[in-house]
Every structure is written in structure tokens, then in C-alpha cells.
Amino acid sequence: MVASIEDVARLAGVSIATVSRALRGLPDVAATTRDRVFAAATELDYVASPFAARLASGRTATVGVVVPFVNRWFFAEVIDTVETALRKAGFDLLLYNLGDGHGRARFFEVMPMRKRVDAVLVASLVLSDDEFAALSSLDAPVALLGLERRGFLAARIDDVHSARVAVEHLLSLGHRRIGLIGGDTDDPMRFTPPLHRRDGYRDALRAAGIEPEPALEVLGYFTVEGGGEAAERLLATPHRPTAIFAESDEMAYGALRTIRRAGLRVPDDVAVIGFDDQINAELMDLSTMRQPVAEQALDATTRLLAAIGAPEIAEPTTVVLPTELIVRGSTDPSRSVY
Amino acid sequence: MVASIEDVARLAGVSIATVSRALRGLPDVAATTRDRVFAAATELDYVASPFAARLASGRTATVGVVVPFVNRWFFAEVIDTVETALRKAGFDLLLYNLGDGHGRARFFEVMPMRKRVDAVLVASLVLSDDEFAALSSLDAPVALLGLERRGFLAARIDDVHSARVAVEHLLSLGHRRIGLIGGDTDDPMRFTPPLHRRDGYRDALRAAGIEPEPALEVLGYFTVEGGGEAAERLLATPHRPTAIFAESDEMAYGALRTIRRAGLRVPDDVAVIGFDDQINAELMDLSTMRQPVAEQALDATTRLLAAIGAPEIAEPTTVVLPTELIVRGSTDPSRSVY
DNA sequence: CTGTTAGCGCTTTCAT
DNA sequence: ATGAAAGCGCTAACAG
Question: B178 near B144, Cβ under 8 Å?
Fold first, then answer.
């Protein structure tokens, strides 16, 4: 069978306590002893049983990562970044994918992370007070990604401002009728961007003296399909918009397809700007607001790990990372690559 | 503090052994006793400590999932599907992302899954004998996704045949000079598709009496960028191909962009077919070979979980799932949606 | 600097 | 059907 700490102790001729100390790099172990322990451990190909260690120490060396989806660009990037950072720090990543409204309800009811994580990272979910309470009941530090709340450490972008910059870009090109393709702010899986990006859209219009029209705000559900159908509705309005702001690149792709299928040209007939600057945006020649996903994820993870060691040191803070307007051919004909 | 099994036992007026049995649904517990235990557990909001349970039982109720990337379509789909299936079965998902060649080497050297998973699922990695040995040393059932090996349960598609069908589609349209955009078969992060899809490509050509030309096989590294650059090289060949088979949709997207930027039309000047039928393929009007990712992942997971309960019952088998040719406008002008 | 010892919170015989 | 008791393999005081 596999070696246990006792086997190592016997081979090294020391007690199991010394083995434990030596292997974990604790101070107060003589160098020669340490060497002997390491040699024995190597020879026996020993690794500590994480469960025994966790039971004895109370620390799990595990972080729970909660996401509403795993197969969407933003969340896949987040998981990638967080996994790497955790692995480097010697932590395991326990993945929790909410999946749908039902999965979400069950998740917060059961709280499957109970007693098995040292910390939690939650990505881009609009949480109810009850859900926040459930997280707090875990009694572990919680990091929020893409949202913010007093008492929680968080990393995010300024969605309101970023959306406003996107729409201002369209305004600066002379557009006055600008459609919005957004997410459902009442969806049970609601996540944060839809609310804020819509606010930024309205802010920009009002600041330009344009009153937002409900008919120009349509739902695209953050999918390509949804974006395409939303664009159909926008094109069908009596006095159709000359520009569209989609709250995500994916929805913008759908809109581009709809517009072109309708025989209209981008950006001459209808300009389109997205949000994210995800991997395919350049491919689609799509103007967009770039957001630094890896940076947000890394920032949150780093501070979360720090919080595990020393909780309650200070009021958790929110870090807001900058976004950037990326102008491509879908709004600026002079830049079009096609 | 949080309740332990003793608290529940005291409240229910039984021994901790009975609590353990009742809560796990073991037989030989009187119905009335069971009810009392459940009532007590509910009242105290008790959940068993997984670590104590694992230490005592030796079972971890955890599956390790090893992927070379998490932010690529195929793997994100896999993780999504597997997570859902595991959660439903009461298992945790421990995610291991190899990241790069160095990460991969370290991974198989350290074997961070040791002593912490009941089973392992490996997705689309070409594994060396040493790496297979390392996995076997975990002494846990292993499921392979997208590859196959004697002694391991596996789910995959027939990459050789599927690639052949894709190329035969091009041949049936009259194309004789067909370029290949593939992955690097010598890459340290090598995964399985490149080898097999290239073989299928060559098989199809030979069967049609065409000798494969090395100049028409270029590397696209399974990225959009790489696919675009590969297409540039193909277009620059003296007698340029009239059709291109890309081993993934992503590379096909890059190729489409390159072709259009060069002022050529798809499919009239150059036809393109991809592989995967991932989410954006329809958007790009790309012909492709559809592969059932969720089905493969679910099949492997289901059988893996079964193997945990009853290992060695029978020789592990490989399930091969069917792929499907999806013809769109990038090969068939009559179907073009643009 | 090192060893002894008492748990951590369960599961699992073995009795009864 | 239930309980007593012996671990599972570590960590963390506490001695010395």
C-alpha cells in the first residue's frame, strides 16, 4: 500500500511529529534531520493524505469557485486564471456550476461547499440578501468578481461607465437612434452586467439630450442566437436605429449576422459595438469595450488567498479595473478590414 | 460552532453510529429512529464533514478532471457536462488544468491528485506511456475522453473517419487541390485530434487518387490566429488550393477571415470546412463535422462513476459516438445565407 | 530541536 | 436494530 507518515518516520528514525514539521517546512527542525526526512519521504514516494491533514488542522487548502456557466467566454477565462493561481499557491479548486435557476436554488439551499472550502470566489452573479447570507454562513472569506458589496472583497470593472463610453462612441459618430441589445434583468440566473450596462446606455443618451425609447431596448439573453433575434426586432421598428450597442460580443455577433442577412451594410447602414473584446471580436471586426478578465480574476484570487491567512485585518475593498474602447470596422468604416 | 455528529446523536437520543447509518440511508435502521435522526439533523443544520468521512471510509466522493485547457470550446463543454453529472451523483469535481508544457510535466511528476480522488477523467490528451503509468499509479478508475487505450474506459469519436468524410465532401464538390490546416503533432501539449484528423484527410485524398502534398498541410495550432496565418501560407502556394479542411472550427474562422481579406470569395474561390460545429459555426455559415461533445462527456462520466462502485467487473470498453456532416454556405454556395 | 499524546469527526467492525 | 470502540492519518499543543 501507499506510505503513511509512520513509514517515513520509521525510515528516517524520527517521530511522526518531526516528519510532519520537516515536510511542511516549519522552523525548529535541524537541517540534518530535515534532510533525512526528505530522503525517506522521497524514497517511499510519500505524500500526506490531504483529508487527514484537513481533519487535523481544520484548513482545507481548497477554494470553491461558483459560476453561473462554465462554457461562456468570460467564465472560462475566469476559471482558467483562478485555477492557475490556486494551483501555484497549493490550493485545490472545487468547481460549482449553477447551471440554471433550479440548480441555483438547490445550490444555495444545500450549500454543498459547507465544511469543505477555506474560501469562496463568486463570479458575476447578482445575489439576493439570502444568498449573501448563505455565503456568509460558510464562515470563510468570499471574493466577488464582477460585482461589489460592502463587507466583501471584490474585483470588477465599471460597467455603467464602460457602457456609457461605448454609447458615446456611437454618438460621436453622429448616431442619434441607438438600439440596445441586453440581458434579462429579471432572469432567475441574473448576473450583474445587464443592469449596469443598460444604465450606462441610458446615461449616455440622456447626457446627449436623447430620451431612451423602450422600443429600442430589446433582449438578447447574452447569446449569439438571442442577439440575432433581438436585432431583427430592432430592424423591424418603424424608424430603425442606425447603431446598436450590444451588452456582450456574443450578442453583437448575432446582430451582425442579422444585419448582413437583411442586406444591410455594417457600419454604413447600421453600426454595431459590443462588450468584452473576447477572442472572436477581432475576427468579426467588431468594435467593443475591452475588459481585463484575467486581471480581475487574478486580483480577486490573490487577495482572497491573503484573506485566508489573515482574516478581518481590514475592511475588504473593491478594486475597479479599467476598460478600453476598441474601435474596429463595425463602427468605423475607415478601419474596416474587409 | 457548527454541529457535529455527536450533537445530532445527543439530540436524537441515539449513538453516533446510528446517526451515521440513518443519514447515509443504510439498511437496518428502524423507520422511527431514522425520522428522529433526520429531524435532529435538520434542526441542527448538520452536514457531515467530508474530510472526516473520507478519512474514515477511504472514499473521497471526488473525481479529478484533467484538461489541457479550460477556455477552449471543447473543454468548456466537457467541464460543464461533467460537473453537472458529478454534482447530481453527489461527487465533487477537482479541476486540473495543465496549462502548458511545463505545467504538464510538473503535473505528471507531482500527481497532485494522489490520495484525493476516487476516479479520474482525462480529456483529449495524447499521453505517453509514463503518463499512463502515472495515472495508473493512482490506483483509481480512469476514463479517457477523445482517445482510447487498452485497459481504460473511453468515449470518443472516430476522428480519422470524420475527417475523411469532411474531405470527401470537398471532393464530391469537385475539389482536387485541398489544403489542410492542422495542429502540431509534435507539440508538448499534444492532444489527440491532430494526428487522426490528418490521417483521415490523407486517406480521403488517396482514395480519390490524389497524392497528399506536404506543401498543402500547414499548421494552425488550433487557434483562430493560427488558422488565419495558415491560410495565408496556403493561398501563397504556387498553385493554390480551391478548398481547405481545417481540423477545428476555430482555425476555420481564421481561414475564412484571411480568404475574405485577400479579396477572394467563399466558397466560390476557396471552400472551407471545419470540425466541431461549435457554437459560432452557424454564425459564420461554416460547413463542419459536428461532434457530440456533451454526449461523449456524459457517457464517460456515467461509466466512470459506475466503475468506482464496482471496479474490475469487466474489461473497460470504448464507446465511439457518431459525427455528422453539416453543410453550410462555406462549401455550398446554394446554401449560403449571406 | 524533538518526542508524546490527544484529538479532528467520521465509518466500520463486532457485539448484543 | 442499535451501541461501543477502534481506528482513518494526520496536526498541534505540551513537555522536555
Answer: no
* pLDDT for residue B190: 65
Q: What is the three-class DSSP state of B246?
A: strand
Which DSSP string do the residues of A198-267 spell out, in sequence order? HHHHHHHHHHTT----GGGEEE-TTSHHHHHHHHHHHHTSSS--SEEEESSHHHHHHHHHHHHHTT--TT
- Taking an 8 Å cut-off on Cβ atoms, the answer to whether A97 and B114 are in contact is no
Q: How many residues does chain B have?
A: 338
Residue of B321, B336, B251, B299 whose CA lies nearest to B78? B299
Closest CB from A60, A84, A95 relative to B83: A95
Inter-chain residue contact B51 with A51, CB threshold 8 Å: yes
Q: What is the pLDDT of residues A256-293, one digit of tens each?
A: 999 998 999 999 999 999 999 998 898 889 999 999 99
Query: Is there contact between A18 and strand C, defined as CB under 7 Å from any strand atom?
Result: yes
Please answer whether residues B214 and B123 qualify as being in contact, where contact means their C-beta atoms are separated by less than 8 angstroms: no
B57 to chain A: closest CA residue: A51
Query: What is the overall mean pLDDT for chain A?
Result: 93
- Low-confidence spans in chain B with pLDDT less than 50: none
pLDDT digits (tens, 9 = 90+) for B275-325: 999 988 988 899 999 999 999 999 999 999 999 977 666 788 999 999 999
Using the beta-carbon criterion (under 8 Å), do B84 and A99 form an inter-chain contact?
yes
How far apart are alpha carbons B7 and B268 in whole angstroms? 75
Return the closest nucleotide (C1') to the Cα of B50.
C10
Per CB-CB distance under 8 Å, the chain A contacts of B114 are 47
The CATH architecture to which B5-57 belongs is: Orthogonal Bundle (1.10)
How far is Cα A247 from Cα A221, in angstroms, rounded to an integer? 10
Q: What's the CA–C1' distance between A313 and D14, in Å?
A: 29
Cα atoms in the Cβ-side hemisphere of radius 13 Å centred on B8? 28
Percent of chain B with pLDDT over 90: 79
Closest CA to A96 of A192, A81, A116, A87: A116
For B7, list phi and psi in degrees, rounded to 5.
-60, -45
Domain limits, chain A: 5-57, 62-157+293-321, 159-291+325-335
Q: What is the CATH number of domain B159-291+325-335?
A: 3.40.50.2300
Which of A2, A84, A280 is nearest residue B97 as measured by Cβ atoms? A84
pLDDT digits (tens, 9 = 90+) for A83-132: 999 999 999 999 999 988 888 999 999 999 999 999 999 998 878 899 99
The pLDDT, as a whole number, for residue B63 is: 97
d(CA B337, CA A260): 9
Nine cell digits for residue A43: 524514497
Q: Copy the grid coordinates of residue B114.
A: 494522489
Mutate to test the interface with B, among A51, A111, A248 (most CBs of B within 10 A): A51
Give rounded-to-5 percent helix, strand, coil for chain A.
45, 15, 40
Enter the CATH code of domain B62-157+293-321: 3.40.50.2300
Residues of B in contact with A83 (CB under 8 A): 70, 95-97
Q: Is the pLDDT of residue A215 over 90?
A: yes
Report yes or no: A265 at the B interface, CB cutoff 8 Å. no
Residue A14 is predicted with a pLDDT of 95
Q: Which three cell numbers stand for residue B170?
A: 470537398
Q: Do domains A5-57 and A62-157+293-321 have the same CATH topology?
A: no
E strand or H helix at B66, and its extent?
strand B62-67
Interatomic CA–C1' length for residue B28 and nucleotide D3, angstroms: 13
Residues of chain B in contact with residue A232, where contact means CB-CB under 8 angstroms, are: none
Tens of pLDDT, residues B54-70: 999 999 999 999 999 99
Q: What is the pTM of this model?
A: 0.91
A5 touches strand D (CB under 7 A): yes
